[in-house]
Design brief:
Length: 125
């Protein structure tokens, strides 16, 4: 069965860095776009970033562009989100997701069919 297991996250001061990982199993990883979505307390989900199946192209929300980097290791079925220059407004529950086959980039949360368990990122000012 499809599984996405996340690791990383935690508490960091503003300006710091964190890396999130998402290990995938149960499907042909290098066939799918993968992405990251976050949800801050009291707010709706926000798409953050996505990466194409080969890892050759990426997209970012304007709010994280230039600070976050998404990457993938297809040999080990892992997708990463490196977060630098973190701000208090980046505080949220971050989830990795697999986009539905044929949905492409998955910049809408409805584009995803499987999710990781979520990991909390808290940035203190």
């Amino acid at each position: 069965q499809v599984q996405l297991v996340q690791s990383g996250g935690g508490l960091v001061q503003a300006g710091g860095s964190l890396e999130l990982s998402c290990s995938a199993s149960g499907f042909k990883f290098d066939y799918y776009y993968m992405g990251w979505v976050r949800q801050a307390p009291g707010k709706g989900p926000e798409w953050v970033s996505a990466i194409d199946p080969q890892g050759s192209s990426t997209k970012y929300a304007d709010s994280v562009k230039g600070r976050f980097t998404v990457s993938r290791d297809n040999a080990n079925n892992i997708v990463y989100l490196q977060m630098d220059s973190l701000k208090p407004e980046d505080t949220a529950l971050y989830s990795c997701g697999r986009t539905r086959s044929g949905m492409g980039w998955g910049t809408l949360t409805s584009s995803y069919d499987f999710w990781g368990q979520g990991t909390q990122v808290t940035v203190s000012s």
